[in-house]
Amino acid sequence: MHDNIQEKLIALVNLCLEDLGWLKECKDGVLLDFPTDNRFGDFTTNIALKLSKLLKRAPQSIAAELVASLQKEIIKSNLSDLISQVKVEGVGFVNFYLNDSYFHARLREIITCGKEALRLDLGKGKKTLIEFVSANPTGCLSVAHARQAAVGDCFASILSFLNFDISREYYLNDEGNQINILGNSVALRLKELQGEKIDFPENYYQGDYIYDIARKADEAKIKNTELGDFAADSILKIIKDELKDFGVNFDFWYSQKELAKSGKVEWAFKQLKEQGYLYEQDGALWFKSTAFGDDKDRVIVKSDGSQTYLAPDIAYHQDKFNRGFSWLINLWGPDHHGYINRIKASIEAFGHKSDDLSVIIVQLATIFRDGKPLQMSTRRGQYITLREVLDEVGKDAARFFFLMRRTSSHLDFDLEVAKKQSAENPVYYVQYAHARICSILRSSPAALTDSDLNLSVLKEKEELDLIKKMLQFKVVLNICLITCDPYMVTVYLQELSETFHKFYDLHRVLGQEEQVTCARLALIKGAKIVLAAGLELLGITQPEKM
RNA sequence: GCGCCUGUGGCUCAACGGAUAGAGCACUAGCCUCCGAAGCUGGUGGUGCAGGUUCAAUUCCUGCCAGGCGCACCA
Question: Measured between alpha carbons, how far is A81 from A98 in angstroms, rounded to an integer?
Fold first, then answer.
């Protein structure tokens, strides 16, 4: 069942190149791709263009010679039932055209096996940990966190689909300065509620939610020294609810407080010291990150004896490996990009490869309301929260929106526009295609079954285009893996939907000759399977009706 | 000053280094006695600037211009 057509064709090309005595010139190997446009066949290779300079010959003449050889070889190796033709096109591309029966077989596979037919075992069960969001429990999640949540969750789903053994983790910054400030903020608001006049510092958390927590703390009679933890716990509950409603579920909530208690930080220090990567200077303890390409060495214990943020972070990342994960993925905001080198340095100091950690920088979403950008400040409590976005545009549209731009690109998000145009949001275009298929399937006579299904009646261009587009699903997932970016799925689903809508517009499914109706029903069932699989990866519902 | 991200029609965005740079919105001309018109078809309109590498550059490299974000013994 394994679809190894691509390997088969590459082997064929290599065989012919060998015969022609050109194989040794092809240093980078033969690239066999899906052409940008299916006018140019089903597979294409640019090998003649590559060889042109080395052989000092015109690419078309090289291609022509190669094609002649390929045509002979195709007949010799009985591949003519698979390949309908191979020819030179354009400036010297060699394009392969497959027989329709190949696509019919692939479609049959999809409707028989369902989404299992779309899987690729690229992960081989590799234990992978993706850490994302990890917002401090000092306030609600912002839109920036929301984008990270959508990207991280979707990428994790894709990796899982590709047979990586993936776990989702949230690193909980539940101790330190910001928790102290949080506790002090609550304490002050409590005094204020009790009628005292207070002077609320600018660097304290300004949001109204601090009042709510203060009231709750008062009721629960929380001691002053425990206000910080109490507040963090309360906020964490809110965060968990927000994420749940956004459809994001974490396997692990990793507590920095627990890490500090565990002795793992000291253990990490000891290891680094033994390797000679720590030294003291100016009363502080430094990590020699320059040994691994960082711009400067980094302080991990300040001269006042307290640790910098880097200290637990080094131990944390090492602990990820110690827990058995061999690939770490971190999603960070752009403000953390300077942090990449020092963390990578730390894992290298422990003998891991730099590539064992992939850091994905998720660019910010700039929030607009009525065309005006909003200033964001956690402390002031003036920012658009994930909750607000969910309430305003809904989970499906929000997730799709956050995922439809390249992760490394800025995202403009005007809430008013998103609300106003919600009916025109691309997510509805895709969901509409799914619902439309369901509607046809509902209207189809029950008597028509898949038995004696003859897919060979699918000969129309739009029918074959739809199958070919469905087959690109795997290619897209592969690109997502290579680029560490799930956004391509949203682009693909729009294209798949478009291909379906075009088919729908030109050809009727129901009321045709029985064989044709059956085959087309199978075709749209296949399209439904792929659409649903894609939407599921995005964490978006697959409505049967809209 | 250094680092990262981004410059593509009026607007928001696509395009593994490939073939005629694609969509949506907006503007505009059409398509429902027929499976969902939240759809389809046509039209107008575009790669910031200057070099370089390449058979081939929106894509890679250098410089410039413009915008965003970072450059702590903060977290």
Answer: 9
Strands in A163-297 per DSSP E: 165-172, 252-255, 278-281, 284-287
Report phi then psi at A486, rounded to 5: -80, -5
Q: Where do the H-state alpha helices sit in A425-460?
A: 426-443
CA of A424 to C1' of B33 (A): 29
For A374, counting Cβ atoms within 10 Å of its Cβ (0-12 exposed, 13-18 middle, 19+ buried), the class is: middle
CA–C1' gap, A36 and B58, in angstroms: 15
Angle A44-A499-A496 from CA coordinates, rounded to 5°:
80
Measured between alpha carbons, how far is A357 from A340 in angstroms, rounded to an integer?
9
Cα of A398 vs its chain's centroid, Å: 15
**Positive or negative torsion for Cα A528, A529, A530, A533:** positive
Q: Which residue has tokens 């030109």?
A: A506
For the whole model, what pTM was predicted?
Answer: 0.94
The ipTM assigned to this model is 0.92
Q: Which nucleotide is nearest to A373 (CA to C1')?
A: B68
The amino acid at A465: D
Q: For A203-247, how does the pLDDT look when each residue is reduced to its tens digit (9 = 90+)?
A: 888 888 999 999 999 999 999 899 999 999 999 999 999 999 999
